[in-house]
Amino acid sequence: MNAERAGKVLLWAVFAYHVGYGILLLFSGEWSIRFAEAVMGWHIQGSPELGILGEILGCYAIAFGLMAAIAARDPVRYRPLVSVAVVLVALRLIQRVAFSDKVMRVFEVEPTRFWLDSAFVLVIGVLLLRPRLKLRRE
User: What is the pLDDT of residues 39-92, one digit of tens each?
Assistant: First the structure.
């Protein structure tokens, strides 16, 4: 699979995940909590305040997913958007490492689960970066 095709596949997956989870956050706080528990192993106590923050985060997730869809249609033309996705993944990794103890404690996440999830985020970043660098050279 060439770099452009690999980038498209991954960007469409990023689109689907973020738009899907964003809709859950925006319209169904209870389902988004269940999703976070199932996917990330987080134990979350819902509250009205958390629901509002989730709705706000849902808007950002949907927007990011739509940005990924635009980039997926033509990764060469929209290389800067692919770069934004790579930067977001890098920031998420920095955040995960910097606040790992707090996240594991507050959300009662098992360390093995937390670090495996973090490794998955790293793999996504590398998979996005690789085609981005190749697209730059072409």
Answer: 888 888 888 888 899 899 999 999 999 999 999 999 888 989 999 999 999 999
Q: How far apart are CA 15 and CA 19, in angstroms?
A: 6
Long-range pairs for 114-123: beta carbons < 8 A, 24 or more residues apart:
114/41, 117/40, 117/41, 118/93, 121/89, 121/92, 121/93, 121/96, 122/93
Per-residue pLDDT tens over the stretch 85-106: 999 999 999 999 999 999 999 9
Answer whether residue 34 shows pLDDT above 80.
Answer: yes
- Is 55 buried (19+), middle (13-18) or exposed (0-12) by CB count in 10 A? middle
Helices (H), the chain: 3-27, 29-40, 48-73, 79-98, 100-106, 111-137
Q: How far is CA 36 from the centre of its chain?
A: 12
Cβ atoms within 10 Å, residue 59: 12
| Burial bucket for residue 38 (CB in 10 Å: 0-12, 13-18, 19+) | exposed
Q: Are 116 and 123 in contact (CB under 8 A)?
A: no
